[in-house]
């Protein structure tokens, strides 16, 4: 099995060293680069083309949602997984809306971090419990809630996506084909006016479409 390639972005050397050492204990994970600032991260990611970028939010510019957008613009195939100490709405929402596949806090147990990195690489949404709770209570619809109407099946699909299920797992759980799952997701994206799975989950929590 080819190891997943990771880049670690954090302005604290001790944190980077700790993450490199921790991730290095897993045979299927390899840290191919690290960066101490947003500018350095863009250079390192462009050079190494990792599968997953594990990044803090608050550091020398560009940072936060701006950095995430730029990273994905430079290497559209990567998954950006936020690992930070901050879980306020001013940090969480811009990161998710910018395209982060997941959002974890630095007190995440190491085994959960390993699972999250692997899940992110597979395109699964990963959210810390406090972040999911914040999204539940942060309902700021762009239009009246009554205008966002998902079918019962679309809600079932979206609920499984929020749990981190893949299209294949969702299809198996609901006894439908993967193609049907993809079709439901396209309809969900259109109704919620979002581009991807992570944004759909965030928007659904904000608009009260998912109860948690």
Automatic annotation (TrEMBL):
Keywords: DNA-binding, Phosphoprotein, Transcription, Transcription regulation. SMART domains: HTH_LUXR (SM00421), REC (SM00448). SUPFAM superfamilies: C-terminal effector domain of the bipartite response regulators, CheY-like. Residues 5-121 form the Response regulatory domain. Residues 143-208 form the HTH luxR-type domain. The modification 4-aspartylphosphate is found at residue 56. InterPro entries: CheY-like_superfamily, NreC/VraR/RcsB-like_REC, Sig_transdc_resp-reg_C-effctor, Sig_transdc_resp-reg_receiver, Tscrpt_reg_LuxR_C, WalR-like. It holds the Pfam family GerE. The keyword Transport does not apply. It comes from the Bacteria. CDD domains: LuxR_C_like, REC_NarL-like. The keyword Phosphoprotein applies. One of its GO terms (molecular function) is DNA binding. GO terms for biological process: phosphorelay signal transduction system; regulation of DNA-templated transcription. This is DNA-binding NarL/FixJ family response regulator.
